[in-house]
Specification:
- Helix content is 42%, strand content 30%.
- It is of the alpha+beta class.
- The protein has 2 domains: 40 residues; 51 residues, HU Protein, Chain A.
- Strands 1-2-5 form a 3-stranded antiparallel beta sheet. Strands 3-4 form a two-stranded antiparallel sheet.
- Helix 1 crosses helix 2.
- The longest helix is centred in the N-terminal third of the chain and has 20 residues.
- The two termini are 21 Å apart.
Length: 91
């Protein structure tokens, strides 16, 4: 399922235009992006938590040459599913 599918499903379920559903989806995603960029967690009960984790700098290896490569520190978005979602997926 992609963004277009979500928009179409919301429009159908809520009897609204696809344009209005697209605005709602865009607003939700943009709000979540801003929160994550600001370092906030986004928790959706029954679904899961989105957050940003800091990764420390480290030394990696180029698998072709076996040469050491410096990997800079970076921030990584992560998702942790809720227990409810895990249970429903594994039924």
């Amino acid at each position: 399922m992609n963004r277009t599918d979500v928009i179409a499903l919301i429009a159908e379920e809520e009897s609204m235009t696809k344009k209005k559903a697209e605005e709602i989806v865009r607003l939700i995603i943009d709000t979540m992006k801003v929160a994550l960029i600001d370092g906030e967690k986004v928790q959706i009960t029954g679904f899961g938590t989105f957050e940003v984790k800091d990764r420390a700098p480290r030394i990696g290896r180029n698998p072709k040459t076996n040469e050491e490569v410096k990997i800079d520190a970076f921030r990584k978005p992560v998702f942790r599913p809720s227990q409810t979602l895990k249970e429903r997926i594994n039924k």
